[in-house]
Amino acid sequence: MARETEDFTAVFQANYAGLCRFLECMMGGRVAVVQDIAQESFMRLYKLGPGALPLGEARFWLFRVARNLALNEISRRETRTRFLARVRELFRQQQPDPAKNLELEEQKQLLLALLKSLPEHQRAALLLREQEEMSYREIARVLNISESKVKVDIFRARSRLRAGLNELINARP
């Protein structure tokens, strides 16, 4: 037992400073995190027990384990940062932009008017496809028509909407 402790102490003293320097460069100088990762690496070596690794391999094993732990910590930190940014964005007060709101409302009214101008069978097929995300087969069952008729109706409805939008865009000053 005394020999095992001496071997572990020798590995620790020979590698701790170098491992910390390596981790400090990887982690951007965060000393507390670096020391935690280095200690965790040595704890894992200690838990392996004596004889699990040849004495010459311990150094390489420690650096590999420390690198993996550092990469995990970096990933966790990035995930945490992205999550906090999303939360901040959700809770940030949105300043209403009257001009943008007005433009969106105008676009909505324009689209509704164009939809109303479509024949009922085309409008129904298009709405079932776009709003309800139904397949052509499902739409055919709902409307009691063939799948090919559904495809034609949706194609024609989209074409009419596109043409109507182009007319309105080109007519604007």
Tell me the strand percentage band.
under 5%
| Through-space gap between termini | 90 Å
Query: What string gives the helices and strands in order?
Result: HHHHHHH
The total count of strands amounts to: 0
Structural class: mainly alpha
Strand count, sense and barrel status of the largest sheet are:
none
Helicity, as a percent range: over 70%
Which spans of ≥5 residues are poorly predicted at pLDDT below 50?
A: none
Global geometry:
elongated
- Distinct helical segment count: 7
Please tell me how large the radius of gyration is: 33 Å
Please tell me the overall pLDDT.
Answer: 88
Provide the number of structural domains: 2
Q: Any chance you could write out the topology, listing elements then pairs?
A:
Blueprint (H helix, E strand, L loop, with lengths): L1 H26 L3 H18 L9 H34 L6 H20 L2 H11 L5 H8 L3 H25 L2
Helix pairs in contact: 1-2, 1-3, 2-3, 4-7, 5-6, 5-7, 6-7
Which keywords apply here?
173 residues, mainly alpha, Arc Repressor Mutant, subunit A, 7 helices, elongated
Structure description:
The chain is mostly helical and 173 residues long. The chain has helices at 2-27, 31-48, 58-91, 98-117, 120-130, 136-143, 147-171. It folds into 2 domains: 2-91, no CATH class; 98-171, Winged helix-like DNA-binding domain superfamily/Winged helix DNA-binding domain (Arc Repressor Mutant, subunit A, Orthogonal Bundle), CATH 1.10.10.10. The chain has 7 helices and no strands. Helix 5 (120-130) crosses helix 6 (136-143). The chain is elongated and about 90 Å long. The termini are far apart. The model has no long low-confidence stretch (mean pLDDT 88).
